[in-house]
Write a structure and sequence with these properties.
Length: 315
């Protein structure tokens, strides 16, 4: 596994990604490429199109060319690495694949995307069957879409596009926004413990459907407390904090506190140590805050949070 996989998967379906078109999906649907979780498989489960696969699979090509799929990133950004996973495809995987990226603003149709200017970010590379393949990307440009090419045909279970979110925040000029939202460019940059789940879950879009979609730590036995640090979408003033313990019934923290960090690195209190309840969305007004670039969330002593929202104004 590569270090870039700790960054968000910009293409993930639950973060707004979509497979908008593919050259072929005769055996297995293209939408599987960006599903969350590891691909599953049950042997000898045959449908009208053959063995059922949790992935994207095309027919055997009898003419020149190769198959491709167009993916709209749910969160546009700078791509740091790509994972191409051929899990369970053993005799029907493509021997080679490449990935291209494009920046197309607005809401383009598939035909407009095909005519766009594409940049190769992963050159044509060898693949193995039933394996994850990790490719680092060295490109500082912001992209909105990727195209997965496989040569000539076959099946790929998952495509992961890890990177740093770069949204267009000009849409919020003069308006308030969630300064801690992943989709607005925030990122968890430090965390004391992520034993059960990723801390970036707490700033993901939407509501957590179960406790695994939040952040949960191991049980502490040392008298300390757990914490995470959020780099805000931009320098801003936090006006309202939402601390959501939804789905956390017997493993919610007892208390929470919030500390702001300004551009010089100086810390200041946003929310003193405050009691929390299990399975509850909490909302706290923040008074007399000053501009912050980061916010540290301390949970006492341990446990989990479903979501953290920090509503405020960019400055």
């Amino acid at each position: 596994m590569s270090e870039f996989t700790r960054l968000p998967d910009l293409a993930l379906r639950t973060l707004g990604g979509s497979v908008v078109a593919a050259s072929d999906e005769s055996f297995a649907e293209k939408e599987s490429l960006i599903r969350p979780g590891h691909p599953g498989f049950r042997a000898e489960t045959f449908g009208a199109k053959g063995q059922v696969y949790d992935g994207w699979e095309t027919r055997r090509r009898r003419e020149p060319g190769h198959d491709w799929a167009l993916v709209r990133l749910g969160l546009p950004g700078v791509i740091r690495g790509v994972v191409i996973d051929t899990a369970w495809f053993k005799g029907n995987y493509p021997p080679h694949a490449s990935v291209e990226a494009a920046a197309v603003e607005g809401y383009p149709a598939p035909a407009e995307l095909l005519a766009a200017e594409w940049t190769e970010i992963v050159p044509r590379s060898d693949l193995k069957g039933d394996a994850e393949h990790f490719f680092e990307v060295a490109d500082e440009r912001r992209y909105t879409h990727v195209r997965l090419n496989m040569f000539p045909d076959g099946g790929i279970a998952r495509l992961r596009v890890h990177g740093e979110v770069r949204p267009d925040l000009s849409l919020y000029e003069g308006l308030g926004l969630d300064l801690a939202a992943l989709e607005n460019g925030a990122l968890v940059t430090g965390c004391s413990d992520e034993f059960y789940s990723s801390p970036n879950n707490v700033i993901a879009p939407g509501l957590a459907r179960h406790q695994a979609e939040g952040w949960e730590t191991a049980r502490r036995r040392d008298g300390g407390n757990d914490w995470l640090t959020i780099r805000l979408a931009g320098t801003g003033v936090v006006k309202l904090a939402e601390i959501d313990t939804r789905n956390l019934l017997f493993n919610a923290p007892g208390w929470v506190s919030l500390t702001g960090v300004d551009a010089s690195g100086e810390e200041f209190e946003l929310l003193p140590k405050t009691r929390l309840q299990p399975d509850t969305p909490h909302r706290f007004r923040i008074e007399d805050a000053r501009p912050a670039t980061h916010v540290r969330v301390d949970i006492h002593p341990d446990g989990g949070l479903a979501r953290v929202r920090l509503h405020g104004l960019l400055v």
